[in-house]
enoyl-CoA hydratase (Bauldia litoralis), 257 residues
Amino acid sequence: MAYQTITTETRGPIGLITLNRPKVLNALNTELIGELCAAVDGYEADPKIGCMVITGSDKAFAAGADIKEMSDLTYIEAFSQNFGATLERIGKARKPIVAAVAGYCLGGGAELAMQCDIIIAAETAKFGQPEITLGIMPGMGGTQRLPRAIGKAKAMDMILTGRMMDAAEADSSGLVSRVVPAGDLLEEAIKVAEKIADHSLPIVMLAKESVNRSFETTLSEGVQVERRLFHSMFATGDQKEGMAAFLAKRSPQFRNR
Ligand code: HXC
């Protein structure tokens, strides 16, 4: 598929998506968001793909929603189009997605990264929700996902001041899972994705679903969901294979069934 604003490539079981609007620091316009969602749809449907990676350039993962495109939007257009809703597709992916972030990761870019399952940051990464400086607030999940990721104190600080957070602060705040040297970012992200893709895909998907449920429900309901999903795993061949391989002291050969 020929995309204009992203590039895609597969590396074994990994679907790699690179945001590619370098002149505007990968600002997320309607076209890019549409292409990104189409690429994720394609990898979700491809049984050979076990994990996705979304990345940007050295300078920017994405510097936010495209301000030029948004600047003349009217209320009725924003409401009618349900502006901002399309990107929710990323958070609804059933297969895991790793975000590999270098440089600016701002506004809608940070909201995109937070819809991925794991964020790996280069030392150069800078996270922020600068919408307040534009006379708006985050509108693609930032006011909801940021406090869940880093707590109210830091989230309010970021959203109300519009300041940026460097990679070290993002790491200590729990926004990212690890920080790596900039030159190693993609390689490290692919390694993490390969590790995930080595496991049984349906089990990985169930684990992801169970973790995500923790953000949507009470503890007792969540634990109940976890237990039911856990029980269901004993109906899979991959549970039999994983445990048999452990007991036989060999590597498991998961077959995604
Ligand atoms: C459109 C953008 C852009 C954006 C950068 N550019 N960010 N265009 N939308 N979000 C463009 C610039 O206009 C410029 O184009 C080129 O990219 C390079 O940017 P510079 O500003 O010259 O680079 P630099 O001086 O290095 O500064 C980098 C930066 C700055 C600090 C990241 O670009 C910046 O503050 N960008 C805006 C960040 C932001 O406010 N994001 C939130 C957007 S709102 P030209 O043509 O001049 O070369 C949002 C809401 C989401 O995300 C919710 C929607 C529902």
Strands lie at 6-11, 14-19, 51-55, 60-62, 97-101, 104-106, 118-122, 126-128, 164-166, 178-180. Residues 200-248 form a domain with the Lyase 2-enoyl-coa Hydratase; Chain  A, domain 2 fold (CATH 1.10.12.10). The mean pLDDT is 98.
